[in-house]
């Protein structure tokens, strides 16, 4: 079977980790990966967890070679709204040079490029590799990597490695190889504002009772100052300034100018923290976002009530120097000290993760930059990722290895949305890049 | 059939005006009322409209007697959540001296007390009444009285009257006869804040794009100042001060102290416009309430997005001197001048109605006060209603007659909620009160 047909086979598994009815599909997908990796000569197994299996595979250990752990995930996001897909999300179709399917970019296409890269190296070198390889492929990334965290601690010796390779981040633009050396962290919370014991008639009681929605709006408004800075006391403690070389580099990243960001997102103008560009804010500044809000009557027409309660879901993206637990404590203190009269507030902490950053110019980092340049014929841009992959920071803490993030997710890959796709050409380049990278990493003195 | 059995028959019609599947039930209920009123010797008919019938009935006209129009509505609210009812909402059941059914208080119980009051007078006086009576009973009150507005204009001559009687307002407390001489008006709007063209990943874009929920919260927060006053320019123009006698009277209304209001609504403290009691704010001060809000992710757990849009439904209760159209214009101007950067705002006007107030000490008003005192054995309290019945103000404009609002809706009648009820004893007193009132009105020189 050719490479693309194999990828299509992998994409046909509806391995949606969030939906119970797909548990068997997730498991079948893990088994298929084990078969594939075993067939290449690796020692592979699917490890049971409380939810979905973790696939671990390793090449026969050769002394004197560095060990590279390649991380990826074979689970995918749900497909709703399925009616917006132009072809079946689990029946891959190539159109205009792109393969369309759920998981095409996130993350099956990218992880499979690494698998085929390793297979090609094994074929070329009589079953040997320039490095020792460990594949660590989880089935719960889209639902929070709940099992992997413990698995890494339980298998820290087997997973011991010199460096981690991940292709699950963004590529600034087509033909722009992108090396990510940082990730933002995450903190979250839910705020519930409670007023009267039941919804009240706004005529019978309006004027005498605090409105929970208005109270919640006041709290939300207190979160930012007029300069777009988060107004929570202590929020920026420990945040390091952006380096001069980073500001220079980021000013040149394709697609990341303020004008391009505005066009891409469909807004008239970007709105940033005062003194920073959009790219700087996304890559290296913390945020406090309101992800959702609800309260009172939301249906057709009107219903004249004072609602009994209202809620907002908030989350913060964090940068190095901030700790999720501390940020959640600061948020709670802020909210508790901004409760308007006549209502009470419940503050529910969410789940968090630390930010991550590594030196892009370490020996490993330079090897990654060179591999990208060789595979794509252009110097890579160096960015930090605005998103969060908390498990990367956990692996750093437990395994002591940094992660080289060589993402191939294009801005229009439509991950988590209908019509997810991955360019066939990029898939090929990814296979090449994986081989070049492993060869270069193999040359580093161990 | 005794009085209560007749009321039970009326309550058995599931005349839910908002639900298409009950259109025939609404119509059947109108026919039953026509039969009842015809049987009493009135000339009665159900008039077709674009939605639900309007029942009009009149006593044979006798010269020299004042004409009293008794208004009521025979349609009812939906019954959801039906599982919270202790007995079938359309199979009336008497428990602890109260009859439980949808519509028991609002408004079938109250309007039927007037019908039986008229029947009793006719019986006692050989088919004559102390006044000429017109019954005007609509089937669309719970859905906005859409047909009645035009009907009144089309039948202004037939509906010509000296005074209107309505029992569809509140009774401050059990055994506290309550005469309402005012109603608040209503203005409404929906605000839609639009940001990015689709929900965005809060990691990939967070920091560079204005958050529509935060923007909406800012707009909402701008609606009030720190004294609880509406901060919309011109909002209070034309609002008249509360009279000294009103402040004195309202300070004594049972159940309306700040402490009682807090207890009744389940809040720690009432929150009012600075300088006014809760009762004063409810009876005679305008408000701006947020009735509902929605945006972004509202489900279980979290979803880290910047939502594409957010909306809020707002409504104002108005007092004499304010016009709904003008208030909506002021609101729109306020919103348009408070749009945060990076978002756009759509402002949708709602439906409004004028406030209403009449002189409680007019000849008719004094007759009403006396009737209440005689029927209940206590002097009535004089209040304005915090709620709105826009059709009352329309009838005043078209027919030139004031409305005597003699409400029997108790604070725990649970109108619009599960387990709506009406005390059997209050039903009897209502029948008495109707007779006394019509006799007293008949004594007024015409």
Automatic annotation (TrEMBL), chains A, B:
Its EC number is 3.4.13.-. It comes from the Bacteria. Keywords: Dipeptidase, Hydrolase, Metal-binding, Protease. GO terms for molecular function: dipeptidase activity; metal ion binding. Residues 181-342 form the Peptidase M20 dimerisation domain. InterPro entries: Cyt/Met_Dipeptidase, Peptidase_M20, Peptidase_M20_dimer. This is Dipeptidase. It comes from Akkermansia massiliensis.
């Amino acid at each position: 079977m050719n490479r693309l047909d194999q990828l299509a086979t992998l994409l046909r598994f509806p391995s949606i980790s969030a939906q119970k009815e797909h548990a068997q599909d997730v498991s079948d997908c893990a088994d298929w990966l084990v078969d594939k990796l075993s067939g290449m000569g690796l020692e592979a197994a699917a490890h049971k967890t409380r939810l979905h299996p973790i696939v671990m595979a390793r090449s026969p250990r050769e002394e004197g070679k560095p060990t590279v752990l390649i991380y990826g995930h074979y689970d995918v996001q749900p497909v709703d709204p399925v009616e917006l897909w132009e072809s079946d999300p689990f029946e891959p179709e190539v159109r205009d040079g792109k393969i369309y399917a759920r998981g095409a970019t996130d993350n099956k296409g990218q992880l499979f490029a690494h698998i085929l890269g390793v297979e090609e190296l094994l074929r070329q070198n009589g079953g040997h590799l320039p490095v020792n390889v460990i594949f660590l492929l989880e089935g719960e990334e889209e639902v929070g990597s709940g099992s992997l965290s413990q698995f890494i601690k339980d298998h820290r010796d087997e997973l011991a490695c010199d460096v981690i390779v991940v292709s699950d981040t963004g590529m600034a633009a087509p033909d722009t190889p992108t090396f990510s050396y940082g990730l933002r962290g995450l903190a979250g919370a839910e705020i519930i504002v409670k007023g009267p014991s039941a919804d009240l008639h706004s005529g019978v009681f309006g004027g005498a009772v605090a409105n929970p929605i208005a109270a919640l709006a006041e709290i939300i408004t207190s979160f930012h100052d007029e300069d777009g800075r988060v107004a929570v006391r202590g929020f920026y403690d420990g945040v390091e300034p952006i380096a001069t070389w980073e500001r220079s580099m980021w000013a040149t990243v394709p697609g990341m100018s303020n004008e391009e960001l505005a066009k891409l997102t469909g807004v008239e103008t970007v709105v940033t923290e005062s003194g920073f560009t959009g790219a700087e804010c996304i890559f290296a500044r913390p945020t406090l976002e309101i992800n959702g809000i609800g309260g009172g009557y939301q249906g057709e027409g009107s219903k004249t009530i004072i609602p009994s309660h209202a809620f907002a879901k908030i989350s913060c993206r964090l940068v190095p120097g901030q700790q999720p637990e501390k940020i959640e404590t600061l948020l709670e203190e802020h909210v508790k000290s901004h409760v308007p009269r006549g209502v009470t507030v419940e503050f529910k902490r969410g789940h968090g993760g630390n930010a991550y950053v590594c030196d892009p110019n370490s020996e490993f980092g330079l090897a990654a930059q060179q591999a990208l340049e060789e595979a794509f014929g252009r110097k890579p841009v160096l960015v930090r990722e605005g998103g969060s992959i908390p498990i990367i920071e956990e692996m750093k803490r437990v395994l002591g290895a940094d992660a080289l993030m060589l993402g191939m997710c294009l801005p229009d890959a439509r991950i988590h949305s209908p019509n997810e796709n991955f360019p066939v050409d990029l898939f090929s380049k990814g296979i090449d890049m994986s081989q070049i990278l492993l060869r270069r990493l193999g040359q580093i003195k161990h």
